[in-house]
C-alpha cells in the first residue's frame, strides 16, 4: 500500500479534483449506474466555478500519493460527509479510508455524535465496512436522470465533553 498524505484543499486543486470526480464516476460506478446516469452525475463538475464553490464551502481534504492528488472528501457542516471520490487508478489502496478516518475525527471535533453520508450504490459496501448503517433508500434527480443512493449513518461515539482534555 502506498503512503497516503492528506492536506486541505488549495485553489489550484480545483481542475484536478474535477478530473478525479469525472474519472471516478465514469470508471468506478459502471456496475451500478447506466451510462446516461453516470454522464448526468459527472456533468456536475462541468461548471468549474460551481464545483469550486461547493468544495470551498465545505471542509475539503485532498488525499495525495507522492504529492499528487488522488482523491478528495468533504464535510458539510459538522455531520454530513458530502463528497468522496477516488481516482480509479488508485482505487482499493486505502485512499477513501484515509479520507474518512480524518473526516470522522474532524466531525467529532466539531461536536458531531454521528456522521451521515448519502452513499452511492458503489460506495455502500465501503461505508458498511466502516460501520455506517443504512437508514433509507433515496432516488434523486440529476439532470434528466434518476439515481438511487442510501442514507447511511455512523455513530461517532466517544465524543469528549467540552472542557475535558483527552
Ligand atoms: C467508494 C470509493 C470512494 C472507495 O474508495 P477506495 O479508495 O477504493 O476505498 P478503500 O481502498 O479505502 O476501501 C476500503 C474497503 O472498503 C471496501 N470497498 C471499497 N470499495 C469497494 C467496492 N467498490 N466494492 C466493495 N467493497 C469496497 C473494501 O472492503 C475495501 O477494503 P479492501 O480493498 O481491503 O477489500 C471509490 O470506489 C469511488 O470513488 N467510487 C466512485 C464515486 C462514489 O461512488 N463516491 C461516493 C459518493 S457518496
**Proportion of residues in β-strands:** 25-35%
Radius of gyration, rounded? 16 Å
Helix content: 25-40%
Cα(first) to Cα(last) distance is 31 Å
Level-2 CATH architecture of the domain at 5-111: 3-Layer(aba) Sandwich
Poorly predicted runs: 159-166
Overall SS class: alpha+beta
- The global form is globular
Task: Throw out a few tags for this protein.
single chain; 166 residues; alpha+beta; Aminopeptidase; seven-stranded mixed beta sheet; 5 helices; 32% helix; 33% strand; globular; disordered C terminus; binds coenzyme A
Question: Topology of this structure?
Answer:
Elements lengths: L4 E4 L5 H15 L6 H8 L5 H9 L2 E7 L2 E9 L3 E7 L8 H15 L4 E7 L3 H6 L3 E10 L2 E11 L11
Parallel strand pairs: 4-5
Antiparallel strand pairs: 1-2, 2-3, 3-4, 5-7, 6-7
The protein binds coenzyme A (COA).
The site of coenzyme A has 23 residues, from helix 1, strand 4, helix 4, strand 5 and helix 5.
Amino acid at each position: 500500500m502506498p503512503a497516503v498524505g492528506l492536506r486541505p484543499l488549495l485553489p489550484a486543486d480545483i481542475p484536478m479534483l474535477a478530473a478525479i470526480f469525472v474519472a471516478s464516476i465514469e470508471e468506478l460506478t459502471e456496475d451500478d449506474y447506466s451510462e446516461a446516469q453516470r454522464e448526468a452525475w459527472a456533468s456536475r463538475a462541468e461548471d468549474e466555478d460551481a464545483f469550486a464553490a461547493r468544495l470551498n464551502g465545505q471542509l475539503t481534504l485532498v488525499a495525495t500519493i507522492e504529492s499528487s492528488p488522488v482523491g478528495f472528501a468533504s464535510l458539510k457542516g459538522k455531520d454530513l460527509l458530502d463528497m468522496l471520490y477516488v481516482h480509479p487508478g488508485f482505487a482499493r489502496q486505502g485512499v477513501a479510508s484515509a479520507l474518512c478516518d480524518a473526516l470522522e475525527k474532524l466531525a467529532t471535533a466539531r461536536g458531531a455524535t454521528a456522521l451521515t453520508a448519502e452513499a452511492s450504490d458503489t460506495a455502500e459496501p465501503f461505508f458498511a465496512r466502516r460501520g455506517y448503517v443504512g437508514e433509507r433508500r433515496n432516488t434523486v434527480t440529476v439532470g434528466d436522470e434518476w439515481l438511487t443512493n442510501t442514507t447511511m449513518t455512523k455513530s461517532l461515539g466517544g465524543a469528549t465533553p467540552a472542557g475535558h482534555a483527552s
